[in-house]
Amino acid sequence: MDFEDLKVHIPQSLSDEMIEYAENVALLHSRYLFVTRRGKRQHCYCTHCNGMFETQGLNVGKQAHCEKCNSLCYVKSAARGRNKMVDEVYFVYYAKSVIDPKAIVATGIYAVRDYRFSYRNVKTHFELVAMYLFIPREGSYMWRRIAYQSMAEGFVYVGEWTPCATTYSMGVLMKKAREFVSHESIKQAVQDTPFAWSGWDQYDYRRDSDMVAFFGLYARYPCVEYLVKLGFDNIVGGKLAGERNYKTINWQGKTLFDVLRITKKELNEIKRKNITLDFELLKILQMSLKDRSNFSLEEAMAFCKDFNYSIGTLEKLNKYAHLRRISNYLKNQKHKNHFVTVSGALTTWRDYLNDCEIMQMDLSDESVVFPRNLYQAHQNTIKQVKIKADEKLNQQIRDRLKSLNRYCFEFGGLMIRPVESTEELIAEGKTLHHCVGTYGNRYAEGKTDILVIRRIEEPDKPYFTVEITDGHVRQVHGAKNCNPTEDVQAFMAEFTKQKLKPKEREGKVA
Ligand SMILES: [Zn+2]
């Protein structure tokens, strides 16, 4: 919606009610008695009524009533520094649309009082910073701009109006300002509009203090009304808070059963027993209806608890078995085996089935999907998957050897050659107690070259390990990361001279 199209719906000037709301509600905390001591007397100035009176015994920092207007004010010393004394509030005020009798609007107002320069006759500065339009069965629109009191110069900086993709509360942007919303203005705005039936007055507005996200959702999805009225406002609140909802809610649904996709019996039971319906429980009820596990409400609740609300995993496993069978199988495995909890067994089963997929095992075979001993079966697949992964790495290494063999070289009783397999890499790391065993992937992928130096008469005994990248020698390490011995230093000097290209010789020998 264009800015001009939005603006025609919204009253552009502050009404008397809005100014009164700001004075008496939003800025109620911004009333002060500034006191100056004259001997034993205190000279007072009230910022609310501009009245002056003399008294004694007011405590600076406490609250006291103004003798002129009876306002409850904070007592401040006029002499003390006021260099941070700026009161900012942000409040949302609702109204009917100026042009559409079914629509409602809301305005977000930034109001500020700056007491830093003088405490007498401080004016309230108002700035319109958010405009909202809510059209039933169509949606909501929001434009906003920033405004803040410039701390250096004491004027209000105001930014450009920008459209917002979603409707949200400006509270998040108003860091220092206290937030308010006029509930009285909502009551008057919604009267004789569809929003009167939205359930706004039953909704727990602590979740969404200025209600703009709530009215935005209702404008788009009228089903919000039944959800709130039936006490499912935590579903609405969860949606507004962006909780994960597992596609449980059909927001376009025409009836409550369409929206929640559970049976009337379940719904009545939830209502009767006053159970808090959350997205997880709803999802389990929906899944059990779909796969014909037909859990009772108690069973579904126990299931959620047992499986620690791991909905994502259950959705994956649901393609192998219905929920009742998953539950029975894993409970049985817990009794028989190493599992402390059924949700632990669930994780193992998920990992086991992932392994089976990698190994291309036949998952249409019951005995593969439901091994008699899940723990043992998983230990086996772990080993096999690792072997398979190592085989892949070894093939990559074999493919690299052709070009790496150019480094093969003998000198002074020593020889050098590329590492031939992951097993050799691991053995090298184990024998020499350094970390080269972890280089498998990088070596196989050609990100680095790993070579071994051996004594010619002991060709199978690890001696020194060399890392070369981009034709530079990066590391030469022996047992426990020790530095090259004299014979190895001489060998590497000759190796570098003969085997590495002249411009690549500068590589450091570590
Ligand atoms: Zn007063």
Layout of helices and strands:
Elements (H helix, E strand, L loop, with lengths): L2 H5 L8 H11 L5 E7 L2 E6 L5 E4 L7 E3 L6 E6 L8 E11 L7 E11 L10 E11 L3 E6 L2 E3 L6 E3 L3 E3 L13 E4 L1 H8 L21 H9 L3 H6 L3 H8 L15 H5 L3 H9 L6 H12 L6 H10 L4 H7 L5 H14 L5 H17 L7 H4 L4 H31 L4 E3 L2 E5 L3 H11 L7 H5 L4 E7 L8 E6 L2 E6 L8 H14 L11
Parallel strand pairs: 1-5, 6-13
Antiparallel strand pairs: 1-2, 2-3, 4-5, 6-7, 7-8, 8-9, 9-12, 10-11, 14-15, 15-16, 16-17, 17-18
Helix pairs in contact: 9-10, 12-13, 13-15
Zinc ion binds next to loops.
Organism: Heliophilum fasciatum
InterPro entries: PcfJ
Pfam family, one: PcfJ
Task: Briefly characterize the structure.
This is PcfJ-like protein. InterPro entries: PcfJ. By secondary structure, this protein is α+β, with helices and mostly antiparallel strands.
Describe the model.
The protein is α+β, with helices and mostly antiparallel strands. Among the domains are: 3-52 and 84-197, no CATH class; 397-504. The protein is 36% helix and 21% strand. Strands 12-9-8-7-6-13 form a six-stranded mixed β-sheet, with helices on both faces. The protein has a five-stranded mixed β-sheet with strand order 3-2-1-5-4, with no helix packed on it. Strands 14-15-16-17-18 form a five-stranded antiparallel β-sheet, with helices on one face. It is extended. Bound molecules: zinc ion (ZN). Zinc ion is lined by residues 46, 48-49, 51, 66, 68-69, 71. Zinc ion (ZN) is lined by residues 46, 48-49, 51, 66, 68-69, 71.
